Amino acid sequence: MAIFSSSTRDVPQVAAVPRHVAVIMDGNGRWAKKRFLPRVAGHVKGVELVREMVRSCLERGVQYLTLFAFSSENWRRPQEEVTLLMQLFVKALEQEVEKLDRNGVRLRIIGDLSRFEPRLQALIRKAEERTAGNTRLDLTIAANYGGRWDIMQAVNRMTEAMPEKAGQWEEADMEPHLSMHFAPEPDLFIRTGGEERISNFLLWQLAYTEFFFTPTLWPDFDAAEFDKAILSYQQRERRFGRTSEQLTGKADA
Ligand code: IPE
Ligand code: IPE
Ligand code: MG
User: Fold this and answer.
1) Listed residues: CB within 5 A of ion ligand 3
2) Which residues of the chain have pLDDT under 50?
3) CB 88 within 8 A of CB 47
4) For this structure, is 134 an active site residue?
5) According to DSSP H, which parts of the chain are helical?
6) Is 240 within the bounds of a domain?
7) What cofactor does its activity depend on (predicted)?
8) pLDDT at 249
9) Ligand lying closest to the C-alpha of residue 45
10) Residue 154's domain is classified under what CATH number?
11) In a domain, 135, yes or no
12) Is there a domain that residue 13 lies in?
């Protein structure tokens, strides 16, 4: 399995289409409230937009799509909403995996899955196994995920694996233990819903990612909105600490 080294060290090739897109899908509740609907109606619509996003990524040649579906902090929501979100998750796994598989999508779920019901855990394992051979798009759903949790579990596994290196561990020792070890770091991070924060998403991996914030609520984030984010990304110059001249070769580096 390929383990990607940090893009903060090696400048990745500038590509017209971001290779890895990570998204905080926010604004479902407000979308529903605007329509005098219960919050769950926003989440149901949100699942539809996930489908559309996957289609867009397949069409545009994005290789990795990582979606924040449920944070480790979202357990703090009213019990009723948490239960409904879990039911939606189960339903989506039951109904969507076959189509994902047919379309060459490999599905992974990252996060602390131990807190989920056994039935949900089994569905996750089955979906991951079923799609493990697919290579067209890597779709990762972060569920009960927290960036700090991810770093801590990686530290724990690293220190267990090489206790003799205490005091001399390096970034490269920890990276293979992070949940997203199989993917290059995100090129483009999108957060819908108007909030401009990371909310404990991929803390380690977003070190040099390009950020795109939009007030558009997730259930309204269609392919045209996604193209706006890609266009914005294409206008950035990614320097990774270097000077602009070094990258364009216009002056002595
Ligand atoms: C994001 O939408 C979905 C989840 C966190 C599960 P929200 O439910 O946070 O929607 P708002 O922010 O209340 O509008
Ligand atoms: C972040 O959304 C997590 C997901 C989209 C799953 P929230 O809406 O829960 O984020 P905060 O707590 O308002 O920052
Ligand atoms: Mg929110």
Assistant:
1) 26
2) 253
3) yes
4) no
5) 28-34, 39-60, 79-102, 118-130, 147-161, 171-174, 223-234, 244-248
6) no
7) Mg(2+)
8) 80
9) 1
10) 3.40.1180.10
11) yes
12) no
